[in-house]
Amino acid sequence: MEIVRYADRSDRAVRVGVRRAGRVSPLAGVGSVSELLRLPLAELRGLLEGAGAGAVGSDGSVGTDGRSGSDGLDESQVLLLPPVDGLTEVWASGVTYERSMAARVEESSQKDAYQKVYEAERPELFFKAPAWRVVTDGEPVAIRTDSGLDVPEPELGVVANAYGEIVGYVACNDMSSRAIEGENPLYLPQAKVYAGSCAISTGIRPAWEISDATSLDISLAVVRDGQTAWKGETSTARMHRDLPTLVDYLFRGDAHPAGAFLATGTGIIPEMSFTLAAGDRVEIEVAEVGVLSNPVVVGKEPLAWLVDALSDPFAREVAR
Ligand code: DO4
Ligand code: MG
Fold this sequence. Notes:
Blueprint lengths: L1 E7 L5 E7 L2 E4 L6 H4 L4 H9 L23 E2 L3 E4 L7 E6 L3 H10 L3 H9 L4 E7 L10 E3 L6 E2 L2 E7 L5 E9 L1 E2 H6 L4 H5 L5 E3 L2 E4 L10 E8 L2 E9 L7 H10 L7 E4 L17 E6 L3 E9 L6 H4 L12
Helix pairs in contact: 3-4
Bound molecules: 2,5-dioxopentanoic acid and magnesium ion.
């Protein structure tokens, strides 16, 4: 089961629901994912496992609307949206795998910083995106026009509620400019935060359905002209940090009243001779959690629809 956010093609309303076996059922009375992330874990679980997953009328009222019913809607009847909204922010952790440390030592003018943070008690955390800038499966991810060495970063994303409890997981792509970060680590926000830099899978997999988040396979393939141009894999078992500690650091310095998403770092980085190019397709899978398949575009213009999608979720369709 996954928590999804979607626009209903019948009345264009944005709803939150659950997806089971490819069918989407609205959660009665729930207006946003951030509303769900305000609940304690036990309450959220009770709501999702109980009668919460039922039909909702087009006016948002509880009850059968004649189409959704207990079987829900076929995915073709909805436009799936990123499962993050409102005040919920996406953050990311860095240098949590040895591979990430080694690749950054190789690319950086300031090698020491990466070795030190890999070994330090305090993890590296950085802000990645507000909810509205996030793209999802099928939408483009971007490389910057002023970069030149660019990679996807496939990562397990943790979804924390307002209490800092891990309530779910997603697949993330923390798109990165190695050229900009490599020039100077102080350029990290420019290397990491730009239009099309943050992709999240369409559903949140509840934490209680994942048997062992410390042993999930993660894979990446970059497809170019119909061929695999690069591929790699890892497992969260290779992570040098534990997930609750990463979340604990995120909540130490600030409140997250609508919960937070935290990408937990990459263990897959291509060698320096490889860079993404326009027209590539990035395929990511986090086993048991989710998938992402995103075409690569260059610059901010191909992401201009993100602004339009603030008022009309169907504006996203131009990019799919
Ligand atoms: O230190 C820079 C960012 C690292 C990162 O994003 C990662 O390790 O995944
Ligand atoms: Mg990363």
